[in-house]
Specification:
14% of the residues lie in helices and 42% in strands. The chain is mostly beta strands and 170 residues long. Strands 1, 2, 3, 4, 5, 6, 7, 8, 9 and 10 form a ten-stranded mixed sheet that branches. The longest helix has 19 residues. It starts with a helix and ends in an 11-residue tail after the last helix. The structure holds copper (II) ion. The site of copper (II) ion (CU) has 5 residues, from strand 8.
Length: 170
């Protein structure tokens, strides 16, 4: 059913491009059309910072790049990775260039790995609350979905406010 939906929208986009003439930008498909978000959830947090996780599947024939994110539940949202700081200690930091999901592959956002960082959280307070998240792609298209807040005790140190990671706020 998904495939049929994509075919239809591609056909519509191609028709629009033909109608508009040759000066139209590449209208083959928006990157957001290729991305399927599943298993999404947010670590419950009453205030401060928390993180969202998901499986991002690219069902298209081209790589997609996520360059930004936003949420009405957070004052500020960043795309983070967890990397070795050089001394064997994992630290999280903003990921250069965002998240790339190669064509036909799935990019996992998980505790201890890439994640969507929510700062100045206002309403991810308790487990079961639905949090709206929007991912923005490099072509300007967007995907909005809801992720349910869950209790999660693991990897606490990675998602605490940035006391131990001075580079975090930059
Ligand atoms: Cu983070």
């Amino acid at each position: 059913m998904k495939a049929r939906t994509r075919l239809v929208s591609t056909a519509v986009a191609s028709f629009a491009a033909l109608t508009l003439g040759s000066c139209a930008p590449d209208a083959s498909s928006a990157q957001s059309d290729s991305l399927v978000v599943r298993e999404q959830w947010v670590k419950a947090a009453g205030s401060g910072a928390t993180a969202a996780f998901a499986e991002l599947q690219n069902t298209g024939d081209d790589d997609v790049r996520i360059v930004g994110a936003s949420s009405p539940a957070a004052g500020h949202v960043e795309l983070h990775e967890v990397a070795d700081d050089g001394s064997g200690t994992p630290v999280m930091r903003e990921k250069d260039g965002g998240f790339v999901v190669p064509a036909g592959e799935t990019h996992l956002l998980a505790p201890g790995a890439d994640h969507v960082m929510l700062m100045d959280v206002t309403s991810v307070s308790s487990p079961g609350v639905d949090v709206e998240l929007t991912l923005e792609f490099e072509d300007g298209s967007r995907v909005t979905f809801t992720a349910q807040a869950r209790d999660f005790a693991g990897a606490q140190e990675h998602y605490a406010p940035a006391a131990s990671t001075p580079s975090h706020g930059g």
